[in-house]
Amino acid sequence: MLGSIVMRARCRRVARVLQSYLDGELEPPTATAVAEHLEACRRCGLEADTYAAIKTAVGAGGGDRVAVDRVSVERLRDFARSLADDAG
Amino acid sequence: MVPQVDVLYRVALSLTGQPADAEDLVQDTLIRAYRAIERFDGRYPRAWLLTILRNAHVNRNRRRRPSLLRDAESGEALDRLAPHAPASEDVVIGDEFEAVVADALAALPDKHRAVIALVDIDGLSYQEAADALGIPRGTVMSRLHRARARIRARLDVAGTVPRRRSM
Predict the structure, then answer these.
(1) Torsion B115-B118-B124-B128 (CA) sign
(2) At a CB cut-off of 8 Å and minimum separation 6, what does A45 contact?
(3) Which of A16, A31, A41, B118 is in Cβ range 3.0-4.6 Å of B129 for a Cys bridge?
């Protein structure tokens, strides 16, 4: 009984920082504690998996875009270099 | 400055939604940066450049299309961010999952979609996204959380949630 109450309190704490955890924005000790909880708690683990999958799916959508734009980026790098040359 | 061009371009693309506009915006940013370089203290060049880019973006919109400065849910600007590639190794995700995420992303308000694009596609930290958008870090976090929760809600409605490979 007490164990499940403690677990639910942990679930709530983890839920509050889950997005920051997935984005790598937590300090290492907190991130470690969250990771341990996600291993131990199936419900929170599934929740984290779902959000990780959303993050991955959104991020994957930008992959093609970045590859296609290499020409633009190169042109801009040349432009930046020319500004640096002018400034120097 | 040259090493930051890649991230500047990706952020500009997220902000403008058009490759040609993004390129113009980065050029504008670089010119402004070189003009102001004597006032730059040398620390956090990416944050400094993102702030310049954001200001340049606001000025360009003010000149050209004032309505875009509001948070109106106007744009198809980021509609092309629909996911295509296979997802993470830990989770089973099918085409249906990706389709629902794409639809949900397209349906987000611009301000939420911009934040999720900067963080998940462009790989910016919360603080960098805050600099790029000219909003507090806490606002980046709340918009990001809300955006993902909306996508999650769509997945729930569609009955499309990922499963763990093991267990």
Answers:
(1) negative
(2) A38, A39, B164
(3) B118
Query: Has the ipTM of the complex gone over 0.90?
Result: no
pTM of the model: 0.74
Whether A77 contacts B5, CB under 8 Å: yes
Cβ separation of A76 and B27 shorter than 8 Å? yes
Question: B88-128 pLDDT, tens per residue?
Answer: 444 556 678 888 888 898 899 989 999 999 999 888 999 99
**B108–chain A Cβ distance below 8 A for any pair:** no
Residues of B in Cβ contact (< 8 Å) with A60: 83-87, 98
B102 contacts: CB under 8 Å, gap ≥ 6: A57, A61, B81, B82, B83
How far is it, in rounded angstroms, from Cα B93 to Cα B98? 7
* B12-45 tens-digit pLDDT: 988 888 889 999 999 999 999 999 888 888 888 8
